[in-house]
């Protein structure tokens, strides 16, 4: 919005030329979403507490101490992330950019899905919300629409291609199957963040790290000179996704202020699905899907731990981990919650550095 109003005034006020620079608007988006989150956070938490007398329903099959320590804490805190992020993007991004609009579509729709899921849990006072099959069906349907619209607008030489990191100009053309692959990336990312959201501050920290990493990737992918130098795909318009990443970082930092142990509010599926879906959509839009598996490796580990646990129990009747997802396994081993969170953050930062190294190591 500011982009449209201020750019025409550059001839009269030369200092407004700053708004042409993505880096300046990215900084503005970050601080705007951060400040908005700080301002609305207390009011949203107070409102959520009023309508959720018992707080978020706690899993009875989870760690026993969660029932005692976390009972009464309201959920749906992801609402403040969405409001802060979307408002900031509207203010600072070039809304004529099709990639920004498509990613916003994922953020909003996945947030609504998560909100319905959270509402159902609260209404029926159960940790079971919308059925998993129904939720996945809707998520994949939305992701398919996203991929279809993206394929219509993106550089035609990139349609259907999966680019392999750490190799120069190595890509695989999977044609129509990219619809399945791209949708798996988006839906998988959303649900991986959702699985990771089990301890105070655990999911939002790595989400911020991942968003920061993709801010760099989106900037380089959207700049022909940098992308050509680094031998990565040039995706026209992807530089504007830096604004989206920055807004997500700011909103994430603002939310972390209230979600730090002991949490005043949980993000719930409203936040985890929208944040994870946004990250997955940015990875697909910037043609760095495989890199997301590395940078977001912590989310992958959490998801894989659940898959291994389920298959092991069904096939052998035995569990590999003391409890899944992985963070609960370490809780059962006696690690304190802050220890797990901080160590998982460290792992996330290391994986992000490994992933970003692919931009140069080719």
What does the secondary structure layout of this molecule look like, with pairings?
Elements: H1 2-6, H2 22-51, H3 64-69, H4 78-92, H5 98-123, H6 132-153, E1 161-163, E2 171-173, H7 178-196, H8 204-221, H9 224-230, H10 241-259, H11 268-285, H12 289-295, H13 297-316, H14 326-332, H15 337-357
Antiparallel strand pairs: 1-2
Helix pairs in contact: 2-4, 2-10, 4-5, 4-10, 4-11, 5-6, 5-11, 6-7, 7-11, 7-13, 8-10, 8-11, 8-15, 11-12, 12-13, 12-15
Question: What would you note in describing this structure?
Answer:
This protein is mostly helical. It has one domain (2-290). It is built from 15 helices and two strands. The protein has helices spanning 2-6, 22-51, 64-69, 78-92, 98-123, 132-153, 178-196, 204-221, 224-230, 241-259, 268-285, 289-295, 297-316, 326-332, 337-357; strands at residues 161-163, 171-173. It has a two-stranded antiparallel ribbon. Helix 5 (98-123) packs antiparallel against helix 11, helix 11 (268-285) crosses helix 12 and helix 12 packs antiparallel against helix 15. The longest helix has 30 residues, at 22-51. It is globular and about 60 Å long. The chain starts with a helix and ends in a 5-residue tail after the last helix. The mean pLDDT is 90.
């Amino acid at each position: 919005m500011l982009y449209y109003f201020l750019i025409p005034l550059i001839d009269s006020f030369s200092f407004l030329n700053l708004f042409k620079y993505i880096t300046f608007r990215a900084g503005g988006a970050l601080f705007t979403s951060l400040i908005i989150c700080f301002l609305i956070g207390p009011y949203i938490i107070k409102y959520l507490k009023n309508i959720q007398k018992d707080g978020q329903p706690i899993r009875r099959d989870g760690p026993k101490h969660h029932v005692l320590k976390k009972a009464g804490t309201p959920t749906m805190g992801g609402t403040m992330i969405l409001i802060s992020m979307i408002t900031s993007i509207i203010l600072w991004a070039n809304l004529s950019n099709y990639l920004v609009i498509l990613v916003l579509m994922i953020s909003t729709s996945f947030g609504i899905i998560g909100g319905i899921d959270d509402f159902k849990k609260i209404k029926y006072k159960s940790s079971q919300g919308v059925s998993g099959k129904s939720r996945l069906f809707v998520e994949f349907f939305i992701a398919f629409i996203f991929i279809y619209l993206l394929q219509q607008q993106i550089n035609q030489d990139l349609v259907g291609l999966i680019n392999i990191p750490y190799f120069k100009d190595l890509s695989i053309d999977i044609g129509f199957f990219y619809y399945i692959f791209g949708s798996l990336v988006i839906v998988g990312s959303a649900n991986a963040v959702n699985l990771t959201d089990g301890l105070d501050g655990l999911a939002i920290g790595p989400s911020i790290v991942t968003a920061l990493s993709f801010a760099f990737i989106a900037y380089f992918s959207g700049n022909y000179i940098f992308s050509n130098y680094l031998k990565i795909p040039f995706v026209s318009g992807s530089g504007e996704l830096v604004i989206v990443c920055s807004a997500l970082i700011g909103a994430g930092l603002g939310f972390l202020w209230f979600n730090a142990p002991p949490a005043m509010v949980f993000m719930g599926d409203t936040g985890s699905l929208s944040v994870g879906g946004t990250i997955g959509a940015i990875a697909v839009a910037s043609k760095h899907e495989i890199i997301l598996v590395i940078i977001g490796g912590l989310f992958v580990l959490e998801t894989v731990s659940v898959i291994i646990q389920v298959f092991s129990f069904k096939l052998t009747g035995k569990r590999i981990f003391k409890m899944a997802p992985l963070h609960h396994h370490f809780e059962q081993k006696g690690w304190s919650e802050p220890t797990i969170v901080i160590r998982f953050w460290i792992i996330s930062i290391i994986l992000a550095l490994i992933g970003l190294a692919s931009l140069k190591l080719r």
